[in-house]
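#help-structures
NK: newbie question, is this the right format to request a structure? protein is NADH dehydrogenase FAD-containing subunit
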Amino acid sequence: MTTIVVIGGGYAGLNAVKSLAKRTSADITLVNAHPDFVERIRLHQFAAGQQLRPSPLAESLRGTGVELVVGRVTAIDPARKEIDVDGRAIPYDTLVYALGSVADDHGVPGVAENALTVAGLADAARVRDLVPAKGTVTVVGGGLTAIEAATELAESHPNLHVRMVAGHAPGSRLSANARQHLDRVFRRLRIEVRTGARVAKVLADSVVLTDGDEPATDLTIWATGFRVPTLAADSGIETDHGGRIVVDRTQRSVSHPDIYAVGDSAVARIDGQELRMACATAGPMALYAAGAIATRLKGEEPKPFAYRYYLQCISLGRKDALVQLVDAMDRPKRTVFTGRFAVVVKESIVRGARWYAYR
Ligand SMILES: Cc1cc2nc3c(=O)[nH]c(=O)nc-3n(C[C@H](O)[C@H](O)[C@H](O)COP(=O)(O)OP(=O)(O)OC[C@H]3O[C@@H](n4cnc5c(N)ncnc54)[C@H](O)[C@@H]3O)c2cc1C
């Protein structure tokens, strides 16, 4: 019997493993560093003091026949077709790589020592524990995660002074309508937005900006994007400059055809454009890859992966959100939805993502 090992039990890995269990009669193992599925797209809420629903992977996998190994993958040996999990060798015929991503410090000095992130459960828990009741929290970054973190913290901690620092206006890739709404929300939540200068260094009680200014801060949250672990590149699997596995149109590694990569760890392209690291792309990639593996096990060739974007959803605390309609290539259209309707849409998508992966 063929052996499939899926590494990483996030949105991509868990979707892949569930689908493989339904579609194949292979021996399937899921390896994940934590015993729980982490709803990563709620980590800014968790950092702001809200609870996450308990989600043990063992519960999710009950009745599927999938073996769960809780441990950290430390090496992949593609020549021997085995992985190392905390010193234990696990062999595979097919490997599905779904190790996700971590916060990217872009090499800025002081981030590791003096800043926290909301990119992983342990980091977000530290933010939750250390966020002061009063004082200043500086959120570095102007992308969607920075916006979600800043608004959530400002709403949950009304006595806190939340400051965003970004080289460009937050949400600069959104439409003009969306940016206008963001400005209104930042004013309502009294979030200070500083643009035009980047953070050159993070100190224990201030951030040093490229324009020479050095605003004081009680806590710094680094939210300037994600990068992937170096494990794939270190194992000799072909990756791009950022360490994401280069795959063909069937999510299969271009250097190792018995390895598939899905989610943030894979650099998949549709019509030449890289899919962005997102829960919205991770799930479809994973379901597709499971189908491709099942098809090949039957001796047939799968159709290439197809994907199109419809919208981007951004939470702005619990009382507001932004739904930005986009075209198939993720370019913003004029239409945005805000307020209660957008909150319902965003919440339904977040719940749906959990339901689909975890059930
Ligand atoms: C605060 C926040 C808000 C977000 N909001 C959105 C949003 O609204 N919409 C959206 O589309 N995306 C959002 N994202 C991005 C989204 O969370 C990721 O793109 C998505 O989680 C990627 O799924 P994945 O399965 O590839 O990785 P992950 O969900 O990160 O899962 C990777 C899994 O691999 C495990 N793992 C890692 N290394 C090892 C190892 N060495 N050994 C064993 N296991 C390992 C991890 O423990 C984890 O379980 C958000 C991210 C954050 C942090």
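mod (FA): yep, format's fine, and the tokens are attached above. The CA atoms of residues 312 and 324 lie 5 Å apart.
NK: thank you!
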